[in-house]
Every structure is written in structure tokens, then in C-alpha cells.
Specification:
Six copies of one chain form a homohexamer. Chain A is about 45% helix and about 20% strand. The first copy, chain A, has a six-stranded parallel beta sheet. Chain A has a four-stranded antiparallel beta sheet with strand order 3-5-1-13, covered by helices on one side. Chain A has a two-stranded antiparallel sheet with strand order 2-4. Chains in contact: A-B, A-C, A-E, A-F, B-C, B-D, B-E, C-D, C-F, D-E, D-F, E-F.
Chain lengths: ~280, ~280, ~280, ~280, ~280, ~280
């Protein structure tokens, strides 16, 4: 992640919140007033986005000092002080909401990812995210998934191949689709094919797909598919996995379980900024 | 909302998903292929963001045609076809995910707002949003709240005044804080003061605050405060309202109930794009 | 005002002046030459924009040091040294024109605002600006009006309500117009209605408008309207106020006098940068 | 002027005026309402910026139609209808202020330039602008000067050479300064030297300067300098020319009279948009 | 490639060429003049960038019509008319240089790629590009390589893995480096390891690298490595390949030959725009 | 050149190379690892772009320190260490390719310019560039030409006048074309006319053109034209000068030789970054 790209995201967030100025604060708080406070977790969760929170404040005023009392990815109990802050009161109060919005959103995702990872502990499967992310925040959300112990699926359409039903239909079958893709793409990319039954799995194997997505299958179907594939390709369980028993899915032997809900249905972690 | 501002948000979302190109689609789908399909609600909900979804596709290819089969704010049952699409297959497939991410996110918020509004029907209270929005999407999210029947609180720090504890402490009390603000702000803005007990409510009244926030009060406290205020100011119930019995809160007589969870904890509405 | 937003305005100004480089200075001035000088008021006026001038130079070269010898909003006589500058000669000479253009423009507005404020001293009225500002410079110009002792009207169309004749006609009268607006807007905004005679004033009062604009009325009409309103709404005198006797207008008892000419007809304050 | 550069200026102006939406208009005016009206000159002046006004409306809604009833640079008497407009009522009302701000500002400059040009008619001198322009609007303002019959000085620091006292001092005299510049610049640029007396004029001639600025000279001094130069260089009268008798200056025989006040002290031309 | 991303590149190119306006053309060519002409290849080459050339003109004036007489990737002999153009004379003349700069640059790269591809025809190897591209033009240059028949290596650092000597040293060997990467990256990416001798090739094989780069090896070394690898990984010849006998390299059996010179040392194809 | 404009070019280059992150480096290199190394010329050449290379690294991480061991425009033999670098290993490795791409490209142009300048040493002619530059990099490329000892032609269409055949045809001859231009342009610009034979040269002289381009003439024709012009205008040899014997061209007595190939056909200078 490029610093100036992250800053652009934060600046857009600051602009939409602050607009032409925080007039309440400008009216009430003297220009040279200082303030200090702390960020406290009001519920258990996995902290994520501390550096983003810090950058948000420093974009407003480089004199603001944030001291971390927890680390990225740390599981903290309710009541934990996760960071302290100190600096010009105006800038701290003006930036509070934007910084919290980012921190709570990212921590919410990391917490959910961490929970899913815990649910399948002891299996060899990994939890992966999807492209069902909040528009404008993908790199932060994919980072939050990793911070929670999850694994990233492709970032977007240009750094990974996923051949779906419409691609297959247009190309005239799985094999011609895979061949068309292989001719065109950088040799550094693997090829994944979406399948819904064993016949399609067989075609994908024949096409030498690197990854086979098992889409909307029952656990029994997945178990059979995994056995059938026998290590000739990575396997990915997909399709409303947010509503499934993840442990049972993992025990089918799949390599990856991708969960759209990790990022399309986010519950912000409850974090407050309290002043001394 | 300015069209070119909305387009900037959508373009950022398209860039982060498509990057340097949708190479799967470019490989498999002939350049002149056409496709048609429909957006279907896979659960009951309040539709929101149809025009954003349409613009997303047209930014990729102006030849894509989207025909609406539902309208903004319409409550649709599971299985409803909410829009039809037809156009160049490559652009439709490439834009699918971004368009759905926007549509599902906005519909998710409208659905939640609509549910909260329904919960207090029959009372005079209104449901309002907060500044706890997803960074970068505030105008779309505030629009979604309105679409779901809710009311907007201030958009950001420059179009509304909310005097909180730190402002009050720095200014030396509610009355000096309100006076400081009144001297500085455009005369077109009302002044809201956060209060936590009747003593503070009294000070706010003395300062001729236009709006009094009743923060983290019990329903009994709010009932008393509302009676005490007696129409001399608008009243707003606030503080984890997402976890409260909204009907009971509304029955305290408050004018507004502001709910951060409407936008900080979003559950995407389940909508799919199916192809014919 | 966000620092990085101010910087974007300044950078655009620097780009349009400097283009691909100040080739005169690059040719004549050695890279390591230093220079010092001072900004001098060549006429009496109200200084405004010192921090913008400073940022302009520092965007070119962070080593430039500007030492203020006057403060924002200070009334200075002709001949006053308002700031000193010292730093790399190339950057100072290259930035001179852009920095002065900003400083002189803002000081010109502050001076005009200050003059209008002085004209009504002893009355309870306040001088306010309008939306008739120079495209691209609104936040700086509204700041300059405040610096000169004036008051800001709404910043733009989203942070204030002003219901004009066309709105009223389309909505079917003042009362339905106010009601339509009240349903839609954040509860943090007041509602202003434009009126041209006492009948309209009465309608606005009936609609419980918060502010009543008295547009293009004679002083006698305004006096009557103010009496009639009797404190039930704020009153604002409007309509070519730049050409009126402000003291006489103020003495009608209006709360606000809004003057488009403050920002649509600007006379730059004469300030020079002299080198030692 | 590049269309998309002009649009960027207009979009910035629209954003600062409209912000997150024209909520008054959105509340009162039905989405499908149409409106028609006309732009009327409320005082005599030189019209400028009609195409900018048109683009401002079309950026909001491409269906708005503007029909010109006057042309760029036309001198119109008070009461002239200079353009008609027709289209969706919401977009017309929302764009009105920004479009007028641009049109009035540009027409104000063209009017002033035209007045200066008229003042020296019958002489061979030309009126020129300077770099004392409003930050962010230089290309529009320089265009307005041309529209009023004036001539442009260099656009900025990279398309023209003007060697001033500090350059001369640093280079060790006019001759070494001109030589240093000549070595470095594109051969397509002329070289102008600022002089304050005949001795400096002589040095500039010796250095084969293409243009000699006569800075802050009396008319007598300029007459003498022009005679002395005898056509060996262009001559430019400069220094608070806005306060001088332009005819008398022109009669000294100078080729150009550059006037900062044309753009640093702008009086908007009074133009209104009236609806039918 | 996103249309609006391509347009941004073209707009930047237009801005740097046209600046504040093509004053020669504005002075000499009447506003309503039309012109027609044709693009002619003044040497043999592979045409590339026709759509970029067309967009450049249309960004200046949507009325310009470009009619293609050749197609992307077509090998044309000297003297071929590759496109015709017709439209407003001002915009055509103003856009000519920028459009040609883009077309000639892209065609130059496609021509070079095509020549390299021809050189190894009959072998199974493919020609690939590198990240040694012209700053700001990577997506256009990578497209030009494909247009010339070449293959793309990764677009940048986020869509492909290439473990080099410094990564290996820091990670403590090839095997730990590959393992560290595998834990972190999306499962959709292959892993490439740079090797310089057979010992390193063995380590890469042990680490189950997907691709092995043979860096700066002699043809004999590469032949041996290819035999040794025996299809267990893709092989890529690398290291000043622009100066090597490509046929001989291809005959070592490598899968890919990556050539930095394809994009770091570009010779523009000679194409002219002639007017009728 | 404005620092923030240069940074924008570099940031675009970094974004296209680094995308969402250098995942190889992030995986293998510990966050706190440091590295040091040096840039070495692998062939003789003229160094250019050192400050751009330095800024590229510092945009990634301000802690990176680059120590110059050569200077802009210095001719260095093969094997010269031109700069040293030291800093956080991740940022150094991530920025390496972009920094080198810029440095090698600019040094390649400076080297070519320097070679052309050397070829005509002893004559009074100067080598000039053209507008045939790489889209997006013009200011860096024009700077590189100067660094190599060459001279800049106009930067773009707004800072110089070049009247070509189509302008002449539309205006009705060289004399009306020059007059039309002279009326419109800033008086700070010279006027250049393209000619192809002595008759046109005569017309250009009659029109008092400041510069006469001798386009695609033989050396004999140019010699004759130069004699004929006799110092009444600057002369510029033009037309595939990259393929001509520059010394012979210079000996015709022309003032300038403009060479498109300096920038349209660039060979990157071979420079490596080696780590200690």
C-alpha cells in the first residue's frame, strides 16, 4: 500500500466530514489549546487500522502525537486502551470522527476475519476474502482481512483469473476458455475455474486449471470433489459461506473458503476516544 | 448530489476493482458479444442506488442499457426483478461486481432505515443518521437513509452545530459555548447542545439552543426532559440507539432518534445479476 | 478550512503562474543565493491572508521563512511592514506574484467588509456576505469577510435554506414550500424565505420561517416589516446593498444586511514585497 | 484553452457552491419541472464568458439549452437580453449562481478592458494585462481582456521573459542578465527588461533587449525614452497605470500600456437571470 | 484498460503540449474551417494505438471523425494509409502532435515486439516484456507488446511475484523466501524465483517455485537448466536479452524470453499526418 | 519545474508499478531491515535526473538517503558510481525500478543530446529539441536536453509560434498569417515561419518573421537561404535531422538544428542499482 494512496483515501474522508470547516470547534476551542486522551475498546475485538487512524490526525496537524498501546491484529478484551493521543485540541476534535470511522470499520473486519479463522482452526483450510468490498476501501479492507488472520483472494480483475459460467459459455466450454485465457495473461497468474458439479471439475482438471472453485456445493459434494481432484489443483469453497458452518466446510478438505460477508456486511468494532 | 461527484466515487470503485483490465473477460468474451440479464432481489428489502448502478455501467460503456423495474425506496419481496440490463457483454461482466457492491450496500442501508422508521410508526419521532458513515461514501449513505424514510442529521462538521462536552468545557460552560458559536456561524444554522441530565438541559434552554441532544439517557430521563423542554427546542435521543427498543424511545416524545448503526454496521442487501 | 484544500487552491494558482518554470529567475539567480525582504502596505487597509501567503512560499520551498509583523484582521496604516521574508532567492522571486495576488485579494475583501461594518457601528445589525463570490475562492473570501468583522451567510446551497420566488411558485406558495423543505432537510438547518412585501412576510411568519429576507425594499418598508415581525424571525436586508446607505438600512432594525458587492466587486489592497 | 481544463475550473466552482446538494430546490421543485428564462444586462457593458456560462449549466444537465442573443465582446446597452435558457428547472436553478458569477466576472473585466482601449483610441498604443490576476482564473481573465479589445502580456513565468531589478542585481547588470537569459531560454521568446531611467534604457539597448519596460516614469520621461529607443525595441509603460490618464500615456509613443487593475480590481458587470 | 484511465493519460499529454492554447492555430484558422487528411506510414511497421489516437482528437472536439484503414497489430508496408481524419480544422491541427506522439510511440513498441517474435518463430518460446517501461505509459506499452505478438510479464509489483537475490538473502535462502511469500500472497498468483546457476535452480525446484528465471546465463547453461527442470516449472531467460541472438536463446528450450529493451529503448515508428 | 508537479509525475509512475503493494518485498524483507547500495553506470553517458530519482525514493519513505557522487550533466565513464543510497530495505527495493526507469530514460536523452552537441562543436549552431516527446514526460525530457547541452525549442503550443503550411494556406499566405498572429499573441513571443524554398523565405522576411525554419532542405539550399537572410532572422534547420550529418548541417550557417529523434527515439542509459 502506497502512503500517498492511503492518504488520498483519508483526505477524501476528511473532506466529506469537515467540508469547509468544523465551525463548532473553531468557535469554542482556543487556537492554542491542547488536549490528551485515549482510544478504548468498548468490546472485545481485533484491532486494525492504527496507522490509518494516526495518519488521519497527522494530515490535519502534524503536531498530533499518537502513541500505540496495542498492535495491528492484536485481540483485545473490552476496556483495553489501544492508543493514546495528545496534541492541538482543535485538530484532535475535528479529526476524531473520521479517524474513528476508519479504525472501527477496519477493526470490525479484522474481528470478523479472526472469528472465521478461529472457527476452522485445526483444519488445513484458509479463510479468504472476495471482491464484495465497500467501494473505495478495498485495499484497506483486504489488509484488515489479512490482519485478522485471513488470506486474500485476488485484489481485483487484473491480478487473478476466475473463469465463471458466462466466460465458459462464451468461450464454448471450460477447456477453450482456459486456453484462451492462458494465451493472453501474464505467465505469473494462476487460472481458477468455477465449477458446480463433478463433470465440470473434470473439465477443469483436463484444462489444467490451477484452482477449482466449488460453487454452492453441499459439504458432501465438496468432499467428493476434493477427493476426486486429489491435489491436482487448489480447491476453494464458495457461495454464501457467511451462513455456513465453517468448520464443517473446512473438514471437507478444501484449501480455501471465501466469504463475501467478511466485507459486504461489516459491523464496526465499538471503540471510543475519551479525553483526559 | 453533483453528477460528476457521484461519478468520481464510482470511478474510484471501478479502478480499484478493474485495475489494468478484466483479463478473464477480455480473453473469453468476443469484443462484439452482447448479453442481457436482470437484477433480482434474493431477499426482501428496500431498493436504493439504482441510478448509481446505472451510472457505473455507463461509465464503462455508454451503450449499456439499464431498464428499471422498481423505484428508489420501493419495498420489494424476495424474488423481485428490480432492473433489467442489456449491452456489450464485456462491459456488463466487467462492471457487474462494482455495480452490485454499490447497489447492495445502499439498499442494505435503506432497508435498515426503513425498518427503524417502521418500528416507530404512529409516533411523531423521526429516525436520523449520524456522521458514523463509511469513509468516502457519506453522500450516498445519507441519501440511502432518506430513501429508507429516515431523516438526515447534519452532513458534516460545516453544515450543523453540535456542541459536545469538550466544547463546553473549553468554552467554560454551555452558555458561553453557545454564545461563542452564535457569533461565528452563518445565521442559517441552528445550534444543538449535547446534554446528559436535566441541569444541562436547563443550561441549554437558557442559552436558547435550538436543539437539545439527550445523550445516553434512560427512557424515563428522556420523558422528563421532553416535558421540561416543552417545545422550546427540538429534542434528539442519542447513544447506542441501534440496541434500544425504538418504539419505547419514540414514545418518550423526542423529536428525533439518531442511530449510528444505520451506517456504521451495514448488512448488504442480497441482490444478484442473472443473465438470460 | 482544511490545510490540504487550501494548498490545492494555492497549487493551482502557482501552476497557472509558473507553468513549466520561471526561466528568467532560473537564468539570472544562482541556485544558492539568498534574499530577504518585507511586505509593506502601500495604503491603509485590513490585513488578511497572511497564512495563505506563507503557505504559497513554503509550497515552493520549505526553507523560506515568513515572520509576521501584523495579524489577521489588523487595520494597518499606509507604510506598515506587515511581514518579513527570508530564504532561497529563486523560490522567493518565483512565488512573489502568486503570494501577493492572494494576499492583496483577501486583504481587499477584508478591508471592504471592515468598512461596511464600521458604517453600521452602534446598531445591532450585522454585515453578511452572499454566494456572489469569485469562482474557486469562496472559502478564502468568506474567511476574509469574517476577518473584516463581517458575518457569513450560508457557504453554499447545501448548508442553508433560502426559498426564493421560483421555489415558492413551484411549490404553490410560501407555506407549502416551507413544509416541503422542512420534511427534507437536516433538522440542524434554519429556513429562510425571500419576501418582497408585507403580505409575503405574513405568509413566511405563518409558515414559521426562521429567517425572513426583505428583498429590494425601501427603508420604510423594512422598518414596517421589522416591526411587524417583532422578533418572531431573523430579518435580512438584501438587494444591491452595496449601493445603499448602510447606516440607514441598519437603523430600520434588521438583523442582517447582506452585500454581494463585498465579494463580486473586489479592489485588491495595495501591498508590495520589497527586498533589502 | 482546453475544454476539459475550463470544465475543471467550472466544476470546482460548482462544487464549492452546491456542496452535497441544493436542498432547497430538491425540496420545492418537482424532478420533471421545466423552466425558461433569459439573461439580461442591468447596465451597459461588454459581454464575455457566454460559452463558460453555457458549459456550467450543461455540466449539471446536458438537456439545458442556452440560446445566445449576443456575442462575445459585444457592447450591449442596459436592458439587453444577452441569452435565453430553457431546461429542467432543478438544474437551471441550481446552476444559476455559479453561471452568473463566472459571466459577471468575465464581463466585468472585458468591460474594463474595453473602456481602457477606447480611452487610447487614435494612438498606436495597445492596452495589455499583467500577472496580477485572480488566483485560479488566469486563462479566463486573460481571455476576457482580449475579448474587451486588450492585448495579453505573457501568460505566466514560463512563456515570457521579464528581467527585473533583482534579476539584474543578482546577474551583475543588465547586460550579463540578458546574456544569461538568452543562453537558457527557448529561442522563440523575446526578452524584456525593466528600466527606470535613460541610463538603464541604454544598457537594455546595448544588451539588444527586444522589449523595454518603462517603469513608473512620468510621461515626459517616457516620451524621451521612446525617442531615444527609436524603434530598436518595443516599449511598455508600466506602474499603477490604472490611476493614470491613459490617453496622455499613449501619446508618449509607447507601444504598450500594461494595467494590473484590469484584473486585480474587478467590478462584476450587473447581469440577471429572469424567469418567464 | 479503463476508458477514463486512458483518457487521463491522453489529457495529461494534451495539457503539456497545448498549455493555455494553440495560439498559432487560433490566429490563422477560422473557427468554422474544416480539414481532412490521412495518416501514412513512412516506413514498414506494426500499427498500434489507433484507438488512443482517435480518443486524443475526440477529447479536443467530439466532431472529429477518424476512419481506420488498418487494424491494431497489422503489419503495414511503407506508404500505407493507416487512417483518415476529417473535422474542425482547429482541433485537428491542435491535436496532431499529441496524437502522433502516442501513435508513433506505441507502434514503435509493437514493431519491435513483432520483430522479436518473428525472430524466434518455429520455437515454443514466447517473447515477454518487463517493468522497464516509460514512466506513466505502462498500460499502453504492455498493450503494445501484446499487439506486436509478445506476451506480458506481470504488470507491476502487486500482480506477480519475483523473488530476487535481495529477497532471498533477507529471507535466509530460496526455500524460506518462497514459503514466506506463499503465506502472504493471494492464492491466485504464481511464484517466480531468480536463479543464476544450477544450485539455485535446484533450490527453487525444492521450494516448488512455479517459474524459474534463468538470469544472465549462457545458452549452454540455460539448455542444461531447462533439461534439469524438466517441465517442473516454467523457465524464463532474462538479462540483456535485447543484445542476444534470440533464436539461439529460444532454442535452449526456455518458455519465455523477457526483453527490457522492448520498452526502455523505443524507436518511434515514422508516421505522418498529411492533409488533403 | 514545480516540485509538486514533478512529484505528481513520479507518483503516477510509482502507482503504475507498485499498484496495491510490493508483495514479494513485504513477504521477504523484515519491516525494520536496512540496506545500502550504489548506482553504477554500466556504460559511458551523461547523467541526468538524479534529483528525480531521489524524490522517487523519498516519496516512498522520507528516511531514504541518497548521496550524489556525480552531478547533473556530468559525462561519466563506464563503471562510475553516480550515487549511493541507504535506508529502509523495503522502500528501497520497492522504489528501485521506478527510480531507475526515470534516471535511465533522462540520462539516455541527455547522452544523445550531448552527442549531437559534440558533433557540431566549433560551429555557431545550437542543437534544439522538438515537441516530439514522450507523452507525459515533456518537462523532464526538455530538461534532459538542456542538461546534455542542447537548447529548448518552445515547450508547447502556447509559449511559441510556428506558422506551418496549413496555417499559411488558411490565412492566405505567409504575410497575412504573420499579421494575424501578431495581432493575437503576447508581445513577448517571437514568430517563426516554416519555409521550404527561397520564395517562401522571402515572404517570411517581408512579414518580418523573427525566426525562419528551413524545412527538409538540402545543405546547399540551407547555405543559400542563410546567406539570403543575412541575419535578419534566426534560422532553424529541420526535418529528419536525426539522420543527417549534423556537422555538415551546422556548417551551412544555420543558428539552430532541431532534432525530433532526441526525444522520440530514446535509448535508456544502462545504469544499475547494486546493493552492498
Amino acid at each position: 500500500m502506497l502512503n500517498f494512496e492511503i492518504d488520498r483515501i483519508i483526505q477524501n474522508a476528511l473532506i466529506e466530514d469537515i467540508g469547509t470547516g468544523d465551525i463548532t470547534t473553531e468557535s469554542c476551542i482556543p487556537e492554542n489549546a491542547h488536549i490528551s486522551g485515549y482510544f478504548i475498546a468498548k468490546e472485545e475485538g481485533t484491532v486494525c487500522g492504527l496507522f490509518v487512524m494516526g495518519r488521519a490526525f497527522r494530515l490535519l496537524d502534524p503536531e498530533i502525537k499518537v502513541t500505540l498501546k496495542s498492535s495491528e491484529g492484536q485481540r483485545v478484551p473490552k476496556g483495553t486502551i489501544i492508543a493514546e493521543i495528545e496534541g492541538p485540541a482543535r485538530a484532535v476534535l475535528t479529526g476524531e470522527r473520521t479517524a474513528l470511522n476508519l479504525l472501527q470499520h477496519m477493526s470490525g473486519i479484522a474481528t470478523a476475519a479472526s472469528r472465521s479463522v478461529a472457527a476452522i482452526s485445526g483444519t488445513k483450510a484458509r479463510i479468504a476474502d472476495t471482491r464484495k468490498t465497500t467501494p473505495g476501501l478495498r485495499i484497506l479492507e483486504k489488509y484488515a482481512v489479512r490482519t485478522g488472520g485471513g488470506s486474500n483472494h485476488r485484489i481485483g480483475l487484473s491480478d487473478g483469473i476466475l473463469i465463471k459460467d458466462n466466460h465458459i459459455a462464451a468461450a464454448g466450454g471450460i477447456i477453450p476458455a482456459v486456453e484462451a485465457v492462458r494465451r493472453r495473461i501474464p505467465h505469473t497468474l494462476k487460472i481458477e475455474v468455477e465449477t458446480t458439479d463433478i463433470a465440470e471439475v473434470d473439465e477443469a482438471l483436463a484444462a489444467k486449471a490451477d484452482i477449482i472453485m466449488l460453487d454452492n456445493m453441499t459439504n458432501e459434494q465438496m468432499k467428493e470433489a476434493v477427493l476426486h481432484i486429489g491435489g491436482r489443483a487448489l480447491t476453494e469453497a464458495s457461495g454464501n459461506m457467511g451462513d455456513r458452518d465453517l468448520k464443517a466446510v473446512a473438514e471437507t478438505g478444501v484449501d480455501l473458503i471465501s466469504i463475501g460477508a467478511l466485507t459486504h456486511t461489516v459491523r464496526a468494532m465499538d471503540i471510543s476516544l475519551k479525553f483526559n
